[in-house]
Amino acid sequence: MVMSDTSPDLDSLMLLTLVAELGSLGQAAERMRISQPAASKRLSMLERRLGLPLAERGTRGSVLTVEGKAVCHWAERVLAEARNLTAGAAALRAERAHDLRLASSMTLAESFLPAWVAELQRQSPGLQLSLKVTNSEQVAALAARHEITIGFFEGPTVPPGLSSRTVATDRLVIVVARTHPWARRRRPVELTELADTPLIVREQGSGTRETLARVFATAGLRPVEPLMVLEVNAAVRRAAAAGIGPAVLSAATVEDDLSLGHLVEINLVGADLHRRLRAVWPKAHPLPQVAEDLLRIARHSR
Known about the structure:
The chain is an alpha/beta fold. 44% of the residues lie in helices and 22% in strands.
């Protein structure tokens, strides 16, 4: 069996999960409203692309192989993320008055908010909302100017005039490329050493940078000038993975890079990098029920 470099399409992954659920390629084809020959061809193509036998077909139905069960588990995660992407994109392209106007920091928009929004839309079909993605400082400013219904940010302090509620917890991690000297060290990095090291950081106003700055200030440390300042988490991750230097990011944003070995987490002593992620809104404006529903979903997702 020859493996192709072409990534599997979502419909083929959906077919595999349905075969696992229903135990029948024919029933899976019926569920997807395609013919059984078309479903068989699609499953065979998926096996060729991955270079793995995924299902054993028989007169009594189809059963996933050991490899098929593993791929099915990963496929379910991919499909869930695709649904989150669709929900997030729908919010981003909205440009008119809506039932719910949101703003979110980059970290929350990347790793938390899509799943919350997808569940809210599942519970409230027909809900119209808009989403602006920016840094934590701007999220707070938009809330203060009453330009949004509710915002989500990771800043360590809540500006005056805003109500807030903790919706999740997070921690910052130090990450480096596998080729970086820190990746081979056995002892953790001291906070003083981190302060003396030029880092790849987010821009001023981001909650990640503000949280790290507050950690240094609390310890009476003044960090050296950054090695590089970038405005999006993905760019920081890529720069760190390329070996340019260490970076400090949310653990949620680098989870995949760590599991794939693109980045290595470095232990830190001398500071606690855990933080709270908050929702904020103007004190003078009570939250509408739909916003309360979103907060409930967020808290139950922790």
